[in-house]
UniProtKB/TrEMBL annotation:
Residues 73-327 form the AB hydrolase-1 domain. This is Hydrolase. SUPFAM superfamilies: alpha/beta-Hydrolases. Transmembrane segments: none annotated. Keywords: Hydrolase. Residues 338-366 are annotated as: Disordered. It comes from the Bacteria. The lineage of its organism: Bacteria, Bacillati, Actinomycetota, Actinomycetes, Nakamurellales. One of its GO terms (molecular function) is hydrolase activity. InterPro entries: AB_hydrolase_1, AB_hydrolase_fold, Carboxylesterase_BioH. The keyword Hydrolase applies.
Amino acid sequence: MSPTLPVYRRVVHDELTRLSDAPLSDRALPEPLPLDAPPPDGWYERVDGRGLFVRRTTPPLGAAAPSDQAWYVHGLAGSTTNWTQLADLLADRAVGYSVDLPGHGRSDPPPHGRYRLSDDADLVAAVIRRRSDRPVHLVGNSLGGMVAVGIAARHPDLVRSLTLISPAVPDLRMTTDRGADRRLALLLLPGTTGVAVRRLSAVDPAERARGMAAVCFGDPSVITEDQFRAAAEDLAWRTGLPWVHRSLLGSLRALMTSYLSRGSSSFRAAAARISIPTLVVWGTRDQLVDPRLAERTAAAFPDASLLLLPGLGHTAMMEDPTTTARAVLALWDGVEHAGTHGRRPPGRSDLPGAPEQAPGTVVATS
């Protein structure tokens, strides 16, 4: 999404918090890193002749390396930097790996410009298989949530638990009470790419950063001017890549096309095959993926719990990384307690009325 697409009135569904049944860990956590904190270093993994950029988050110097691994998958127009805060909070429990999806961040675009969610899932799975010698905890946001579902369904031996933050689940309603735009459907028509690329190219990075904050965050005012400048600098660097806008549009088309899948290739069929413990997290003020889809999304998985966070938008891991981390830790603790395929023990879900929001780098949409 970009500021060139209209944003409709902000809709609040804080009443949905009553649906939450996910426990929160009581474990003490440090203060989250600031939103503009530098991300960890990364490297390229060569898979089928192209580079997939990966970052690794480890515990503080001198701390023992945990045996678990967590892999983080960002959303549309996002990158590995979307996970800096959450991965850091969880680093003493799991070594964190975040990946730039094809055509995003620093990763190469797919050959011939062919974007498919199943291809993204298989590519990330290949890197996980190369780097991990045991099942991993998988965490995805929005588009990355759908890729994570594909990994868990297509490569079940790789995944120990699944966390989905505002996953971009199928929703063909072009309603105007959220951040949807009827013109998005036109992107499925041939010949529309050039026009869309020209419009995206004309948007100033600083304007785009603010526009993305407006649609991604429940309360964009928590982002400081310094953090906006850091986000704009990152966007300016990425805008210089020749494929960046076509990759955004290609991934968006792939996501929308996946909504039309039926039968065994549909989202519901994939979710039904995923037997591992699953956590679904949603902000009640998400403008990009309707929070009213949260309950039915969690119900699509055989073993899922749901956390709806009041006041948050589309990127809970950036807006409130502490509460998100506590929910993820409770999931992981339950997996450890019950075994890879066991249900989590009961726990508390003591959600605050309005969580304290921490600002985050604004580089994700869906």
